[in-house]
Design brief:
The structure holds three protein chains of three kinds. By secondary structure, chain A is mainly alpha-helical. Chain A is built from ten helices and two strands. Chain A has a two-stranded antiparallel sheet with strand order 1-2. Chain A is globular and about 60 Å long. In chain B, strand 6 and strand 7 form a beta hairpin. Chain C is an alpha+beta fold. In chain C, the strands form six sheets. Chain C has a five-stranded parallel β-sheet with strand order 6-2-1-10-18. Chain C is globular and about 75 Å long. In chain C, helix 10 packs antiparallel against helix 11. Chains B and C meet through helix 1, helix 2 and helix 3 of B and helix 3, helix 5, helix 6, helix 11 and helix 12 of C.
Chain lengths: 225, 256, 637
C-alpha cells in the first residue's frame, strides 16, 4: 500500500498539484483583473466592488485560505522541483542548446523558478501595500467603507511603483506563457486536436493578463496626475 | 542531378570531446582535429576514425557506447553541440551523418549527464536505472504457455497503433539527457501508456503506473517541468502526450 | 565420434508431443536448487531466462551490452511467421514446415523444423498476451502479410520493428523475474570460456567489461544464446558487438560446429559508401513488394537513372524469374545482384549496387500510398545516403545478414558437451542452408519459450550433479587461461589496429567465402587467413588498459576468434562440393545458374570437431533423412 504522502509527493503527484493550484491561481488572476477594471470606471465602482468582497465575511476567509494554500503549495512544489533538478544533474553540460522543433522549452519554461520566486516576493509586498496598507475611509450612499481607490491612486502616482509593477507584470506574463498550457499537460490534458489550441491560447492568455494588469497603473499614472 | 558527377567535398572537423578516465576520475574537454571526413560518414564512423588515429599515436581511444548502428538498439548516447543525439530530428547518433556539418565546424561531444546515469568512461554512462524501472512493472505478468489464442483478444486498430507509437521507445535515455531537469518521465510514460492502451495491460494497470513512477523517483531522476525537450530529441519522436496519459493513469490509480 | 541427433521415433507430427511426455521432469520444489547460466539476452536468451525463472530455476543471465534490451534481435524488422492460418489462405503447420525445409534447400532436420512450425502458433499467443502491439485489422484481429519464399500470408508484424517488440516482450518477462529474484542479471559481461568438469558444462568465465575483472560463474547447465557470426565478414548487418567468441570457445572445449559455411546474404541493404564504413544497414525486404530491381543493359553506363530509357534497362529478376519476379528468395536475389555487378553493370560510384526503383509503383499507387507503406524505410534511406528515394531510385546491394550454421545440437538443443545447450541463431539447427524471412524470430522464441524448458528439465532430472564451487581446480585453470590470453594480446604492442585486421579478414571472407565460392578461391582463403592470423598475433596494437572499459581489447579477442572461425568456414565451404541455399559454389550450378545440390553425397550436416591448436579439425557427418517431404530442385521461375 502506497502512503498518501508518497503518492502526493511523487513526481507525478507533484505535477498534478502544480497543475491544480496553477489552474486555481489562473482563475484568481482573471477575477483579480476583472475586479481591477472597475478602477477604470469610477472611484465608487471600485470601492463598492471591494466593499462587496469584504462583506463576504466567512466565505472570504475560506477563499483567502484556499488562495494562500494554493500559493504556498504551488511555490513549495516549484521550489522542490527546482531543488530536485539540481540534484538530478549536478554537473551541467558544457554546451547547452535548445533542441528546437516541437520542444516547448523557452525562456519562459526555464525561468519558471525565478519568475515564480519574484512573483512570490511581489505578492507579499503587494499585500502589504494594499491589503495591509493605510486605511482611508469613504462613504457611499451613507455606508462607511474603506477607500481603497484613494490608496491605489496614491500608489500609482509614484513612478517607481508604476515601473516596478510593470516589470513584474511582464514577468507574470512570462510565467503564464509556460504555466498555462503546462497546467493542462500536468493534469493529463493533451490531445492532438485540442493541445495546439490550449498552447496557443496560453500565449494569448499570458499577453492579455500581463497587458491588462499593466494597463491600470499606467492609465492611473497618466490620467490622475 | 546526375549521380557520380555530384562533387562531395571532404571536410576537416574539430572535435571537443569529454574525456574521463573512469567513474571516479575528473573529466575534461579535449580538442581533436579529424581531416578528410567524408560527408557520407556517420557520426560514429567519424569517432572510429578519430580512435584509429589515437590508437596509432599510442593514446587512449574515446570510448563510446554503440551497437546496432541502425537506430534501434538505443546504445549510442552522446550530446552533440548541446543536443542529445545531435541536430537531426528523429535520429539516433548512429544515423546522424556528417553531411549535416560544415567544413571547419567545431563540434562538442559530451556524455549523457545525470545522477541516475553515472559516468563509466569518456562518453559511456551507466543506464541500468532504466532496467530497474522496467523490473518494477514494464511487463504484463503472463506465464509462458498460459496464453489464450492470439485472436481471442481483440484490439481496435487505432489502439494498437497508439500502443505501438509508445512502444517504439528504444530506451536510449536521450529524454533524460535532454531534459533540463533530468527527468525520465517520457521513458516511463511510453511503457505505461503502451500497456494502458492495450487490453492485455489492464489487469496490472494501476499497480504498474504507481510502481514504475515511484521507482523512477527513487533512482534520482528529476521531476518533469513540461519543457518538452525529451520529445524533440527522441529518436523515435515519442510525444509528450504520453506523459499526460501517464498522469491520468496515475491519478486514476491514486484515487481508487 | 558418432552424432546422435536424438530425434524421437514415431510419426513426424507426434514426435514432439510424445517426446514431451517421455522426458523427465523436475519437481517444482527442487527447481531452485539448480543454477542455469544463460548467456545472451536476445530473443532466445531472454525468453529462456524468463521461462526458466518462471518455472523456479535459479537463473543467471549475462549480456554484453549495458542492458539486456539491446541484444541484436532488436533490429529485426519484417516479422515473425506462425502457422495460424488466420488469413484462410491454406496455411497449416505442415505448409510452414514444408516451406521452411524447401527454403532451407533440404539441408535441415525434418523433426526440428516440424517442431518449429508446431510451436510457432504458441509463440504468437504468448507474445500477444505480453502486450506486443502487433498490427491489427479494423475489426481488432491480427493482421498478416506475405514474405519472400512463401505463397501464404503468415507473417505477423509490428510496423518495421517486429524484432524490437518481441524482444521487449521477452525482456519485460525476464525483468519481471529479475524483480522476483529468480533471474540475476549480469550486464556488460562477455563470456570468454566454458568450464567443463567431469564431462559436463558446469560454468563460464566472463570478463566484467567495465572493471576488466575476470569472473567465474558455476552452474548446473549453460545455455548459449549468443547469436550468429556474420561479423566475421567485418561488414554485415549485425551489430558491432555481435560476435562468435562464446560459441567459438565452446567449440574449442569440445562442442561441434555445424555447417559453418552456411551464411545468408541479404539482398536489400544500403551499399557501402567508403573505406571507413563500419557496418551495413538492412532495409526490409518488403520493399521488393513494390520496388523493381534493375541495372542498365550496357556495361559502364554512367548516366543518371532518369536519363536511361526503358529499353536500355534490364529488370533482371523479372526477366529471369517471371513467376516470382522481384520476390524470389534472398539467396537468389543476392546472387543475381552480384552477377550483374560482376558483369560491370552495377551502378553508383563504386559500381557495387543495383537500383530498386519505385517510379512505377508511385505512378500506379501515388506517392502517398508508397509513403504509407514504406515511409520509415524511405526516411532511413535518405538519412543514410542523403538521396530522396521518391525522386531517384534507391541503390541496394547484398550484405551478410545471418548465419544458418552454428554449434551442432541434437533435438534437445544440447551440444556435444552435455549440459551445454545452444539456442537461437547460435545453433545450426532449423534453417538448413538458407533461412526464410521472418523465421529467425520464430526460432529464437520457440527455443527459449517452448523447447528448452522441457529438454533442460530432462537433462537436469536425468543426471546427478556434484556440488561445485568456483574454487574448483578446473575453474582456476580455465580462468588463468583467459587471463593469460588477455596478457598475451596486450603484450604484442604491434603496429596495426584490431579494426585493420578485422577489415582485412572481412575482405578475404567476402571475396572468397562470400556469395560465389570457387575451389581455387577457397584454397586461396585457406592460405591467406592463417597468414593474417599469424600477423595478428605478432603485430596487433591494443590500448594497454586491461582494468577498465576497453572496447579494443574486447574486439581483439573477438577478431582473434574470427580469424580461426573464418578458416573453418572456408574449409567447410571447400569440402561441400555442391551448391545449396546460401552456399553457392560456382562450379556447381544448373545451366540457368541456380544452385545445384548433390543429395547423393552431401545430404548431411557437417559437424566439425576441434582437435587442438593448429591441427586440422575432424569432420563428423549427421545424415539427413527426408521421410516426409519430396526432395527436389528448388524453383522460383
Amino acid at each position: 500500500m502506497v502512503s498518501f504522502f508518497s503518492m502526493v509527493w511523487s513526481s507525478v503527484g507533484k505535477k498534478i498539484m502544480t497543475g491544480l493550484t496553477g489552474v486555481g491561481l489562473c482563475l484568481f488572476i482573471i477575477g483579480h483583473l476583472a475586479g481591477n477594471f472597475s478602477l477604470l470606471v469610477s472611484a465608487e465602482a471600485f470601492n463598492l466592488y471591494t466593499y462587496k468582497l469584504f462583506s463576504l465575511g466567512g466565505l472570504l476567509y475560506v477563499i483567502e485560505a484556499l488562495l494562500t494554500l494554493a500559493f504556498v503549495l504551488h511555490a513549495i512544489v516549484g521550489i522542490s522541483i527546482y531543488l530536485k533538478k539540481r540534484k538530478a544533474r549536478p554537473i551541467d553540460y558544457i554546451k547547452v542548446a535548445n533542441a528546437g522543433g516541437n520542444s516547448h522549452k523557452s525562456i519562459s519554461s526555464v525561468s519558471m523558478i525565478w519568475t515564480g520566486l519574484i512573483l512570490l516576493v511581489f505578492l507579499v509586498l503587494h499585500l502589504k501595500t494594499f491589503k495591509f496598507g493605510p486605511y482611508y475611509e469613504t462613504s457611499i450612499n451613507g455606508i462607511i467603507m474603506r477607500d481603497l481607490y484613494r490608496l491605489v491612486i496614491e500608489v500609482y502616482q509614484q513612478p517607481s511603483y508604476v515601473i516596478s509593477y510593470t516589470v513584474i507584470m511582464i514577468l507574470l506574463g512570462v510565467h503564464l506563457r509556460h504555466g498555462f498550457w503546462s497546467a493542462f499537460q500536468s493534469l493529463g490534458v493533451n490531445h492532438p486536436r485540442y493541445s495546439p489550441v490550449i498552447y496557443g491560447f496560453g500565449i494569448f492568455f499570458a499577453l492579455v493578463m500581463a497587458a491588462g494588469f499593466i494597463l491600470i497603473p499606467i492609465w492611473i499614472y497618466f490620467t490622475k496626475q | 542531378m546526375a549521380r557520380g558527377i555530384m562533387e562531395k567535398k571532404n571536410m576537416t572537423l574539430h572535435l571537443r570531446v569529454w574525456r574521463q578516465k573512469n567513474a571516479s576520475a575528473k573529466g575534461k574537454m579535449v580538442d581533436y582535429t579529424v581531416n578528410d571526413v567524408s560527408q557520407d560518414m556517420s557520426f560514429l564512423e567519424l569517432l572510429d576514425v578519430l580512435n584509429e588515429n589515437l590508437i596509432k599515436k599510442g593514446e587512449d581511444p574515446v570510448e563510446f557506447d554503440n551497437d546496432c548502428r541502425e537506430g534501434i538498439c538505443g546504445m549510442c548516447s552522446m550530446v552533440i553541440n548541446g543536443i542529445a543525439h545531435g541536430p537531426e530530428k528523429g535520429t539516433a547518433t548512429c544515423q546522424l551523418h556528417m553531411r549535416k556539418f560544415k567544413d571547419g565546424d567545431t563540434i562538442t561531444v559530451e556524455p549523457w549527464r545525470g545522477t541516475a546515469f553515472p559516468p563509466i568512461k569518456d562518453l559511456v554512462v551507466d543506464r541500468s536505472a532504466f532496467d530497474q524501472i522496467m523490473a518494477a512493472g514494464g511487463y504484463t505478468s503472463c506465464r509462458v504457455g498460459a496464453a489464450a489464442d492470439a485472436n481471442a483478444i481483440l484490439v481496435p486498430k487505432d489502439m494498437a497503433e497508439k500502443a505501438m507509437d509508445a512502444a517504439a521507445c528504444i530506451g536510449c535515455g536521450a529524454c533524460v539527457a535532454a531534459c533540463p531537469n533530468g527527468s525520465a518521465s517520457l521513458f516511463v510514460a511510453a511503457k505505461v501508456t503502451q500497456f494502458a492502451f492495450l487490453p492485455q495491460g489492464h489487469a496490472e494497470r494501476k499497480q504498474r503506473v504507481l510502481n514504475m513512477v515511484h521507482k523512477m523517483d527513487e533512482l534520482g531522476f528529476g521531476d518533469c517541468s513540461n519543457h518538452g525537450e525529451c520529445e524533440a530529441v527522441c529518436p523515435k519522436e515519442i510525444s509528450i502526450k504520453h506523459i499526460a496519459v501517464m498522469r491520468r493513469e496515475y491519478f486514476k490509480a491514486a484515487i481508487s | 565420434m558418432s552424432l546422435d541427433s536424438k530425434i524421437p521415433s514415431g510419426p513426424l507430427a507426434q514426435k514432439w508431443d510424445q517426446h514431451k511426455f517421455d522426458m523427465k521432469l523436475v519437481n517444482p520444489a527442487n527447481r531452485r536448487k539448480y543454477t542455469v547460466l544463460v548467456v545472451g539476452t536476445g530473443l532466445a536468451g531472454a525468453s529462456a531466462a524468463a521461462s526458466l525463472g518462471e518455472l523456479g530455476y535459479n537463473v543467471k543471465s549475462f549480456c554484453i551490452q549495458d542492458s539486456p534490451r539491446r541484444a541484436h534481435s532488436i533490429a529485426a524488422q519484417g516479422g515473425i511467421n506462425a502457422a495460424k492460418n488466420y488469413s484462410n489462405d491454406g496455411d497449416s503447420v505442415w505448409r510452414l514446415f514444408y516451406d521452411t525445409i524447401k527454403g532451407g534447400d533440404y539441408r535441415a532436420r525434418e523433426a526440428n523444423v516440424y517442431r518449429l512450425a508446431q510451436t510457432s502458433v504458441n509463440i504468437i499467443d504468448q507474445c500477444v498476451a505480453q502486450g506486443v502491439p502487433f498490427a491489427r485489422e479494423y475489426g481488432g484481429q491480427l493482421d498478416n502479410r506475405s514474405f519472400g519464399g512463401a505463397q501464404v500470408s503468415r507473417t505477423f508484424y509490428a510496423r518495421g520493428q517486429t524484432g524490437q517488440q518481441l524482444l521487449l516482450g521477452a525482456y519485460g518477462s525476464m525483468m519481471r523475474q529479475v524483480d522476483q529474484g529468480t533471474v540475476q542479471l549480469f550486464a556488460r559481461r562477455e563470456m570468454l570460456d566454458l568450464v567443463v568438469i567431469d564431462g559436463k558444462a558446469r560454468g563460464i568465465i566472463t570478463r566484467n567489461l567495465v572493471t576488466g575483472e575476470i569472473e567465474s560463474h558455476a552452474g548446473d547447465a549453460v545455455l548459449l544464446c549468443t547469436g550468429g557470426y556474420g561479423n566475421v565478414y567485418y561488414l554485415s548487418t549485425n551489430a558491432k558487438n555481435s560476435n562468435a567468441t562464446a560459441a567459438w570457445r565452446c567449440y574449442k572445449r569440445g562442442a561441434f560446429f555445424g555447417n559453418p559455411c552456411y551464411t545468408q546474404i541479404h539482398p536489400t541493404c544500403i551499399p557501402v559508401s567508403g573505406e571507413y564504413q563500419a557496418k551495413l544497414t538492412l532495409m526490409s525486404e518488403s520493399l521488393r513488394n513494390d520496388g523493381r530491381v534493375w541495372v542498365p543493359k550496357n556495361k559502364g553506363d554512367k548516366r543518371s537513372p532518369d536519363q536511361i530509357p526503358e529499353d536500355e534497362r534490364d529488370y533482371y529478376l523479372e526477366r529471369k524469374y517471371p513467376s516470382f519476379g522481384n520476390l524470389v528468395p534472398r539467396d537468389v536475389a543476392s546472387r543475381n545482384a552480384k552477377m550483374v555487378c560482376d558483369e560491370g553493370r552495377g551502378v553508383g560510384e563504386s559500381g557495387l549496387s543495383v537500383y530498386l526503383d519505385f517510379r512505377d509503383a508511385i505512378k500506379r499507387l501515388g506517392e502517398d500510398t508508397i509513403r504509407e507503406r514504406y515511409g520509415n524505410l524511405f526516411d532511413m534511406y535518405e538519412r543514410i545516403t542523403g538521396e530522396n528515394p521518391y525522386k531517384v531510385p534507391m541503390r541496394i546491394y547484398p550484405a551478410v545478414h545471418y548465419t544458418m550454421g552454428g554449434l551442432w545440437v541434437d533435438y534437445n538443443l544440447q551440444s556435444t558437451i552435455p549440459g551445454l545447450f545452444v539456442l537461437g541463431e547460435a545453433n545450426f539447427s532449423d534453417h538448413g542452408a538458407n533461412r526464410l524471412g521472418a523465421s529467425a524470430l520464430m526460432q529464437g522464441l520457440a527455443d527459449g519459450y517452448f523447447v528448452i524448458p522441457y529438454t533442460l528439465a530432462n537433462y537436469l532430472a536425468s543426471n546427478s550433479f556434484s556440488k561445485i564451487s568456483t574454487d574448483h581446480a578446473e575453474f582456476i585453470t580455465v580462468r588463468e587461461g583467459v587471463e593469460n590470453l588477455t596478457k598475451k594480446l596486450l603484450s604484442i604492442n604491434g603496429k596495426k589496429t584490431v579494426t585493420e585486421f578485422h577489415r582485412e579478414l572481412g575482405k578475404i571472407m567476402w571475396d572468397y567465402v562470400g556469395m560465389g565460392r570457387t575451389e581455387s578461391g577457397l584454397k586461396h582463403a585457406l592460405q591467406e587467413i592463417p597468414k593474417l592470423r599469424e600477423e595478428f598475433w605478432k603485430n596487433v596494437l591494443i590500448p594497454n588498459d586491461p582494468q577498465n572499459l576497453n572496447k579494443n581489447l574486447e574486439f581483439a579477442g573477438r577478431v582473434a576468434d574470427f580469424l580461426e572461425l573464418g578458416e573453418l568456414m572456408a574449409r567447410d565451404a571447400l569440402h561441400r562440393n555442391e551448391s545449396c541455399g546460401g552456399h553457392f559454389r560456382e562450379e556447381f550450378q544448373t545451366p540457368e545458374g541456380e544452385a545445384q545440390r548433390d543429395d547423393g553425397n552431401f545430404s548431411y550436416v557437417a559437424a566439425w570437431e576441434y582437435t587442438g591448436e593448429n591441427k586440422e579439425p575432424v569432420l563428423n557427418k549427421e545424415p539427413l533423412d527426408f521421410e516426409n517431404v519430396h526432395v527436389s530442385q528448388r524453383s522460383y521461375k
